[in-house]
Known about the structure:
Number of domains: 1
Largest sheet: 3 strands, antiparallel
Mean pLDDT: 91
Strand content: 15-25%
Shape: elongated
Amino acid sequence: MNLKVVIEExxxxxxxxxxxxxxxxxxxxxxTVEEALxxxxxxxxxxxxxxxxxxxxxxxxxxxxxxx
Length: 68
């Protein structure tokens, strides 16, 4: 799966802030671009795990996997 992320320099505290627009609320940061990218991958995996767990708890929802 490929997802686009937005990375920008944190001019206030230093380092970099990164977010995944496809997953609202999925943000991370890092001291370097490389660290920020590693951290957003972890954040994306966490967000997807929570979304899957919520869907599985719903009586009317089914979780299915697709390839895009």
